[in-house]
Specification:
The complex is a heterodimer of chains A (250) and B (306). With 250 residues, chain A is α/β, with parallel strands linked by helices. Chain A contains 10 helices and 10 strands. In chain A, helix 4 crosses helix 6. Chain A is globular. In chain B, strand 1 and strand 2 form a beta hairpin. Classes of the chains: A alpha/beta (250), B mainly alpha (306).
Chain lengths: 250, 306
């Protein structure tokens, strides 16, 4: 079964037609990069997948989005339950003003888990999966704000992993980070692929080519081309794709 | 080439050589800053002048007896204890009423009804409410709470009236404090499967709390100094005993001050007491403000670590 299967998706911000008839599929345990110039709709599309766009007034969506066969826009779907299954990492690290431990435990707690040992195990496991353990193991009770930007972003990844999502959405997760932190995040994505399906929006073409299996190129609200990353970056079908990846416009 | 050269030369002469223009710019800059500085210093000076005036005249009557005894001999002797207690009752009473309503309205407006017409309407009405003169609140409180609802002149009626008066301030500061919290924190929480309510409870409110608390305490300062709203709803001219129920009348500091300065039995003889009362009132408000600052610092340190 496909992990994500979007069919004929159209999306509007009031009158603005932001996404035009998008058809998009993602298989399990793949990393898919969404690329395209600013305003092309790639972030909008990413935020459709966990219904984050619901938070914006005046938006409208048609078409269907299936996650593991379930229509996430069907009436009766509770968004909070949906979002448990689809984790998200944001452009700017946004840890909560809580301790490192509590940041990661947050998702478990709000989902009603009370078992202390379970929470502790899960928190430690998640921090390890996010390749942050060695740096924070002695200060789990310290404020998350005391961490560096790169560490904060990995903490946010750990936070997303703690609730065992099926899919992890990343919205330019490294754009606010220095090159070393960026490469750590990229290594991490490689690791996470074993257990998660990852969709990442990025402005960085090298990053897309390094981390992803497949790449989708968006332009002016359309999904212009979607193929194996190797193919997109070496021999794209469309001229528009080629112009973008070679930096001739963007 | 030639024109390029000319332009450069001109630019140079403007930038470095026209010293008259430069001197004039610097002079007007210096004058402007001096005026701004003078104005802001004068604000401080006015505050100190008022404080100094009250302290000098009032400090003489301050004593343990003054703070703990009831007025005596036609309010020309004795203390102001009942008025202090009365003001405290009104502050607590109005807070019980205005804090929950104000905070919840603020949360509704900023977190639930963002951008919709209802919120805009509530916001406009709140602003209008804060523009209503306090004596009108007093009149309204008398009509509604004292007469129609038959609470009589009582702590209850006075507290409700003062509560109404401070509501806009509480709503406003709550809303502003919530607005200051970046949306990315809300999104981060929602993306983990938290409901909106959980997000507000566990992330947004703790972060906004230091500022909300400040707003609340400033509203207490406002309430404790108001005279007009309690005039027709609770304040007693002279009542040397402490209240035993919320349906009792009480004395209150601002009204007591008004009474002994304008319509006491012997205004000249109670002049000292008037300044003493003013001093107590000012000290209470200052203490409340200091408390606001201390609490804000305490909570903003606390919120980061757990």
């Amino acid at each position: 079964m496909l992990t994500i299967d979007a069919k004929n998706v159209d999306f509007y911000y009031s009158e603005f037609h932001a996404l035009k008839n998008i058809n998009f599929e993602v298989e399990k345990n793949k990393v898919v990069a969404l690329i395209g110039p600013s305003g092309c709709g790639k972030s909008t599309f990413l935020r459709l997948l966990n219904r984050m766009n619901d938070l914006i007034d005046g938006t409208r969506m048609t078409g269907t989005v299936l996650v593991e066969g379930k229509d996430i826009y069907a009436p009766g779907v509770h968004v909070d339950e949906l979002r448990k299954e689809i984790g998200m990492v944001f452009q700017k690290p946004n840890p909560f003003p809580k301790s490192i431990f509590e940041n990661v435990a947050y998702g478990l707690r709000v989902n009603g888990i009370k078992d202390k040992t379970f929470i502790e195990e899960r928190v430690i496991e998640s921090i390890k999966s996010a390749a942050l353990w060695d740096e924070v193991k002695d200060k789990l009770n310290k404020s998350a704000f005391a961490l560096s930007g790169g560490q904060q972003q990995r903490l946010c990844i750990a936070r997303a992993l703690a609730i065992s999502p099926k899919v992890v959405l990343m919205d330019e997760p490294a754009s606010a980070l220095d090159p070393i932190s960026t490469s750590k995040i990229e290594d991490l994505i490689h690791e996470l692929k074993k257990d998660y399906t990852i969709i990442i929006v990025t402005h960085n073409m090298q990053q897309a080519s390094r981390v992803s299996d497949k790449t989708a190129y968006f332009y002016l609200g359309e999904l212009v081309e979607y193929d194996q990353t190797v193919k997109i970056f070496t021999n794209p079908e469309k001229l528009s794709t080629q112009n973008y990846i070679t930096g001739r416009f963007g | 080439m030639n024109t390029d050269h000319n332009i450069k030369e001109k630019a140079n002469s403007v930038a470095y050589q026209d010293s008259k223009v430069e001197a004039r710019k610097r002079r007007s800059q210096a004058i402007a800053f001096s005026i701004f500085k003078l104005m802001s210093y004068s604000v401080v000076a006015i505050l100190f002048l008022i404080l100094g005036f009250i302290v000098v005249r009032g400090i003489g009557v301050i004593s343990w007896d003054f703070l703990t005894k009831a007025p005596e001999e036609g309010m020309t002797k004795g203390g102001i204890f009942p008025a202090i207690v009365g003001t405290l009752c009104l502050v607590v009473g109005s807070s019980i009423f205005s804090f929950p309503i104000g905070i919840m309205s603020g949360i509704y407006m900023n977190e639930y009804a963002t951008g919709n017409k209802v919120a805009t309407f509530i916001r406009i009405m709140t602003n209008n409410l804060s523009g209503v003169p306090s004596v009108v609140f007093g009149l309204f409180g008398m009509a509604l709470f004292v007469n129609t609802m038959k609470f009589g002149d009582s702590i209850l009626a006075g507290s409700l009236t003062l509560g109404l008066l401070s509501l806009p301030l509480v709503i406003r500061t709550t809303e502003e404090s919530l607005k200051a919290i970046e949306n990315s924190y809300r999104e981060g929480s929602l993306a983990l499967g938290a409901t909106k309510l959980q997000t507000i409870q566990k992330v947004v409110l703790p972060m906004a709390f230091p500022n909300i608390i400040t707003g609340l305490i400033l509203s207490i300062g406002r309430v404790s100094g108001e005279t007009a709203p309690i005039l027709f709803t609770v304040a007693a001219y002279f009542l040397p005993k402490l209240p035993t129920s919320i349906f009792n009348q009480v004395m209150a500091l601002p009204y007591h001050l008004y009474v002994i300065s304008t319509s006491g039995t012997d205004i000249e003889a109670s002049r000292g007491i008037a300044y003493g009362t003013a001093l107590v009132l000012i000290v209470i408000v200052l203490l409340v403000n200091l408390l606001a600052n201390a609490l804000r610092n305490y909570f903003s340190n606390k919120v980061k670590t757990n």
